[in-house]
Amino acid sequence: MKKEGGCQAGKGSLERADALCLRRGVRLTPQRRRVLAILCASARPLGAYEILEAMRDGSRSLAPPTVYRALDFLLEQGLVHKLESLHAFVGCRHPDHPHSGQFLICRSCGLVTELEDRGICESLLSAASATGFVPERRVVEVLGTCARCAEEGGCRND
Amino acid sequence: MKKEGGCQAGKGSLERADALCLRRGVRLTPQRRRVLAILCASARPLGAYEILEAMRDGSRSLAPPTVYRALDFLLEQGLVHKLESLHAFVGCRHPDHPHSGQFLICRSCGLVTELEDRGICESLLSAASATGFVPERRVVEVLGTCARCAEEGGCRND
DNA sequence: GTCGATGGCGCAACAGTATAACAGCAACCC
DNA sequence: GGGTTGCTGTTATACTGTTGCGCCATCGAC
Predict the structure, then answer these.
(1) Which chain regions cross the lipid bilayer (chains A, B) (predicted)?
(2) Which residues of B touch A85 (CB under 8 A)?
């Protein structure tokens, strides 16, 4: 459980989030910012209760609703994503434009890669609209083995 | 909570499941068959505890592990799917060939449509393999409004 | 037949995830 | 000042899923 710099989001994530919320007229309060900071600093997705634990750092006792409310806000603003298959959250890699990404989730090392593949979006939307369905939220998660782990794990070429 | 014939799976679902398990040399025990029957008879996805409730029908008292074990089996055999975004399960519409479908989930009426769109699969797989990722399980769920509800709800064309 | 191995199931307890409901408080508008 | 709104703290609880143990039926070996 290393604690070093975030892989998910760059250094300026928080500052960009500040600017973005300012522009939108919504409030990135200290609690919300804290949750975002924890997520951005993590190399892997975190569960709500892990975030809670991280927020308790010093001594303050916090309860789940605090974290969930902050997450709700951040999800609404597109600053974080929820990984349904993991019950966990990650900082968004490019929050500047609203989107619902696709996620490659390595079961071996926990690494999550966020994609924004136009082909996937289009085939998904066209398949949906072919049935008259009106999409609102898309959940696309692929569980498997990342390149590095697949390599280390023994060069599976099958 | 109507109980009439299943929309998700046709009439012969159970019989096909019997044959399939026989062929594979695995046992579709009464409990497992019961869970499958309940799912197939439901017009909408059911949570594990809803299935549990349905199984208690008469008087027998059952515990969660019973249902979860049956579901594990059915999932392994591809006879049911889990909808991660709903924490719920549906009978598979075409269990004869293994696959991981895509799901259109209506937030208004609960209807779930299972797709098997080649385009989506291919764009997903090609995007994954472009990064060297080795996919094992795919979760593709689109939440929104089904054609009927969209129509009734007031012809939203936006 | 009976012995051990296996797999399915019943049962109790518990772990993990998420929400409801209510209270306090600060900021803002009038 | 007084009402309103939005954010947070707190307690309790609901919902989802798992662990661990023990029983019993089945099946093959002997």
Answers:
(1) none
(2) 84, 137, 139
